[in-house]
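Let's sit down with a protein and look at its sequence and fold side by side. Which protein we use is up to you, so please pick one and set it down. Label the sequence line and the structure token line clearly, so we can match residues to local backbone shapes. Go ahead whenever you are ready, and we will take it from there:

***
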Amino acid sequence: MRVITMGGSAEGEAEAAHYEAELRALPESTLPRSSGLPVFDLCLIGVGDDGHFESLYPDREEIADASGRWVLAVDMKSPPTITLSPAAMMSSKKVLVASAGVSEKYPMGKSEAMKKAIEGMEGPRAFPASPQIYGMLPSRRGGRLLPERRLPELSAEAMRR
């Protein structure tokens, strides 16, 4: 396992460029590439109540990023955050979305967000966690995780909607 740390500044673009440069510096024997994108064995991500994953939020331009960049800056909070681009995440051998948890504000919590993705009620511009991925969903009993389930498959064209 190799850990790459962020630089620690409040400059989103600089942090994204630094992190991407560190990833690109890894030899292909460590981090294979396909069509110019990194191929991670597994991309494990969480999903928010509103359907955001990583720092990719509904209806934001980063969802449809086609720049070829591996890491993006997202200037939505202060300081800005960085995230893998959708293309970099989806080029992984397997993407696993773990969704669990509720709050006072969202009593149905992430279960409701994941239900929308599974039932195909939302497109990826409104609900970015719905491309071809696998999900680990909590059961209604004690937060146990259910076996992985493939979420609806969406084309690259659908990602731009």
